[in-house]
Recover the amino acids of this structure.
């Protein structure tokens, strides 16, 4: 049995390693806020949500498959949460049984009874899933959910449960084990076969002692420890194959519940996130993924999801159309929302490519084969390297994993040197990325760098500028405008208190 809720025809690989650069992604895009909202204090959901979020899909059809499953989950949240709880309880039952029958030394008998106990607890949980499938299968529309519920109804029919119940009852051997064997030439036992409970029923004449004897028996003395050990060894040889078969069946069902819990755990996290965003009145939409070969990016009212989750008030959204523009350069006023927009792009791209909704009025983008961030960092406190050395080292590490149709987000990169050198480094790096068919979003305060893109890459570049009102206030919105030779740093100076003041003679004084 397979769940197949995250992929159409395969299980999700929860054991796979995280992608290159995932630490920077989590830090730069502040993804911990998103993952905490999805987890809602469930550590397991946090872990699977991180795996799925970072494991970006690159096929638009695969993304739409998950989007359709998520639509079903949003329509029937109580059913999804109930199924997740059943899968969780099934695995908790397994842990309890292992605690009873587990140990460093395992015999076929203990293995058999442990496997039977597993199968009995799993069967009870399968009955619960079958009941949900009977009651709700007609309500679901997505390929993933309809296939799962149809499989549960088809494979877990009444005949299945009747057969399983009968076989598990037999495997308890409440009347003892019946094992046949043959003698080899040296009188050692061979060909041990476990027989069904009815195979050893003696004819009524034998039981009454009438007529000739058809079989012989003996009884061990309760104090015969050696004989008891020999008999135990013979029993183990007889039930070994059955014990292995029962253990394999239990493992199969355990694997099913493990995968079901993981895949439903992601969708349960989506439901938790939806509830939190809905409670704040945040706009949410189903994004439209485009093929990697189509350089598309457009959005309306796009917001930074993680900032929305942390902020007590509303967050300003942005409208951008950058179709056919592999380079987007963001300039403008300090503290005007440039970095927030950059994070909103990265978070939305990740959410889209894992099958999630995004916080926007609309969102369309091509799928990226990899997503990387190169954000400004604090200077190395140990002084083992300068800021520019660190920036170049991180850029080199990213370059090792880049390929066509990747997405790279730069935030004030290459600021660890002077204007001219930083502009030259930034321009050469970005030009190489564009030639490799990599999409770039670049936030910069360097006018020389932005202006060079304006002069030499006008056809492939969209320029966005953070707005500043005439009174110096920011509205945190970006407009499609060319860069200016100032980022209005003096506004920050006055917001910080204007501790430098000039007297009427023109000399500079330090205020108290």
């Amino acid at each position: 049995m397979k769940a197949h809720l995250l992929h159409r025809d395969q299980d999700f690989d929860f054991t796979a390693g995280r992608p290159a650069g995932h630490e920077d992604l989590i830090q730069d895009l502040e993804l911990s806020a998103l993952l905490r909202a999805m987890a809602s204090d469930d550590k397991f959901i946090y872990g699977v949500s991180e795996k799925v979020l970072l494991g970006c899909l690159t096929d638009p059809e695969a993304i739409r498959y998950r989007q359709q499953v998520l639509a079903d989950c949003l329509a029937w949240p109580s059913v999804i949460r109930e199924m997740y709880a059943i899968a969780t309880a099934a695995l908790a039952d397994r842990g309890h049984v292992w605690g009873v029958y587990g140990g460093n030394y395992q015999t076929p008998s203990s293995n058999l009874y442990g496997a039977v106990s597993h199968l009995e607890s799993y069967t009870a949980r399968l009955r619960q899933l079958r009941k949900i499938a009977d009651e709700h299968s007609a309500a679901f529309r997505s390929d993933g959910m309809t296939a799962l519920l149809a499989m549960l109804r088809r494979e877990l029919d009444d005949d299945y449960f009747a057969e399983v119940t009968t076989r598990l009852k037999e495997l308890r051997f409440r009347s003892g084990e019946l094992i046949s064997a043959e003698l080899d030439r040296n009188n050692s036992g061979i060909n041990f076969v476990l027989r069904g409970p009815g195979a050893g029923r003696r004819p009524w004449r034998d039981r009454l002692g009438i007529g000739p004897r058809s079989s012989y028996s003996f009884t061990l003395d309760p104090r015969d420890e050696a004989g008891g050990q020999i008999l135990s060894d013979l029993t183990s040889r007889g039930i070994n194959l059955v014990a292995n078969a029962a253990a394999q069946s239990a493992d199969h069902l355990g694997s099913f519940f493990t995968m079901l819990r993981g895949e439903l755990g992601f969708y349960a996290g989506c439901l938790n996130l939806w509830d939190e965003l809905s409670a704040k009145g945040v706009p949410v939409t189903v994004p439209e993924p485009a093929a990697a070969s189509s350089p598309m990016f457009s959005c309306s009212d796009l917001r930074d999801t993680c900032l929305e989750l942390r902020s007590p008030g509303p967050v300003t959204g942005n409208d951008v159309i950058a179709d056919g523009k592999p380079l987007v350069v963001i300039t403008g006023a300090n503290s005007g929302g440039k970095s927030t927009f950059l994070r909103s792009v990265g978070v939305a791209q990740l959410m889209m490519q894992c099958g999630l909704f995004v916080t926007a009025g609309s969102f369309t983008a091509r799928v990226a084969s990899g997503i990387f961030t190169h954000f400004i960092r604090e200077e190395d406190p140990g002084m083992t390297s300068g800021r520019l050395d660190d920036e170049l080292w991180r850029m080199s590490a990213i370059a090792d994993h880049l390929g066509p149709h990747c997405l790279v987000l730069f935030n004030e990169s290459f600021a660890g040197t002077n204007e001219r050198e930083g502009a030259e480094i930034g321009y050469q790096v970005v030009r190489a990325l564009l030639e490799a068919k990599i999409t770039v979003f670049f936030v910069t305060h360097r006018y020389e760098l932005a202006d060079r893109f304006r002069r030499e890459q006008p056809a492939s570049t969209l320029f966005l500028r953070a707005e500043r009102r005439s009174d110096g206030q920011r509205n945190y919105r970006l407009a499609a405008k060319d860069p200016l030779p100032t980022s209005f740093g003096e506004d920050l100076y006055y917001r910080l208190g204007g501790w430098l003041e000039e007297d009427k003679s023109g000399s500079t004084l330090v205020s108290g």
The first strand starts at residue 178 and ends at 183. Residues 97 and 399 are 50 Å apart (CA to CA). Confidence is low (pLDDT under 50) at residues 507-512. The two ends are 75 Å apart (CA to CA).
